[in-house]
Structures are given as structure tokens and as C-alpha cells.
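User: Please predict the structure of the protein below. I'd like the answer in C-alpha cell form so I can feed it into my own downstream comparison script.

Assistant: Understood. Taking the following sequence of 200 residues as input:
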Amino acid sequence: MGVAIRTAGEGDRELVTRLLDEAFHNDPVSVWVFPDAAHRRAKHPGLMGMFTEVVLAEGRIDITEDGTACALWLSVPADAGHADDGPVQLREAVDPDNERVELIGRLTAGIHPAGRAHEYLWMIGVAPERQGEGLGTALVRSVLDRCDREGLPAYLEASNAHSRRLYERLGFDLTGRPLDLPDGPRMWPMWREPQPERGA
């Protein structure tokens, strides 16, 4: 499709935060974390900003050259442990009275596979008016191609049924049981083994 992709830097922080806020504002998981619409408008951008900050510091953010889509990746080593205080710090920074901000971090950390190095697709956001054009697929494929070359698996949690189908087309399979958020939506942990034959 010829989508131009670059690595985001500090100067892209606001753009990435805005993209994620727009893309995930009405996502089932975001609605569960912030059920009240007015409260979500006030607090959701801060949560997306914290995610952006973490991945700029510890991972990699790919962004389309036109600034309409981005993907947040973390390289997870085989011996990675879970940062117990991360969800607490996130809640304190974003919305101290909202236990769901902390709970989502604890629950997803609890199902994250351990023991093998892998690339973790934390989030992918596409501007609402550009969704359905293949931008997200192009962003994910660029990293999956590298995973295939390097023999690395990849992991993610799909937050809605539509994205789950997209990831299945890209070679991800369900791993373990789905995560049912308390009184909330379902998330699907998905794993993809490297596929060396794809580029041959």
C-alpha cells in the first residue's frame, strides 16, 4: 500500500496522545475505565499521555508520515518481571479516585506471557476519519516483518471484536483465556509466532 512510516520522537508527544485519545475514546475498555462521558473527556487524554510517555521512554512508537496513525511497541525480554507499582503510579497520576485505572494495568499484567522475549503491541491508534484504510495494518506489518526476520514472537491484547479479527488476519492466535473485566467488556490476549516463510 506504500504507507510511509517513521519513528516518533519527543516532538510527537502531543500528536500521539491526541491520536490515541481520539481512537480509543469510545473503545469498550476506555468506556469501562471511565463510564461517565464527561469524566472520560476530562481524564482519558491524561491516561493516553501517560501511555505515550512510557513508550517514548522505554519502547518505540511508529507513526505514519501524515500523522494519522501510530503504534506503540515494547520489546519484552525473556526474563521480564511485572512492575508492581506501575498501575498504582498510573492511577495516582491520572485519576486517583478511579480504581479501574489501576485495575486494568494489574489484570493485563497478570495475563501477559512470560519466559520468551517478544514484541508487545501495547496500543495502535488511527484517527477516526482514517479508520478502515489499512493504516493500522501497515503499521503492524512493518514490525511483524522484522519479527519474522529475527525469529521473534509478538503479543497483544485485543480490546474489541473488530481489532481481534484484524489481528487474526495478521497471524495472531488467541492464547490462554480471554480476560473478562469485572462488570465490563472482554479482552483477548493474542500471540503470534514468527513466520519466516512470509517474506520468502
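That's the full C-alpha cell string. The chain has a mean pLDDT of 92.
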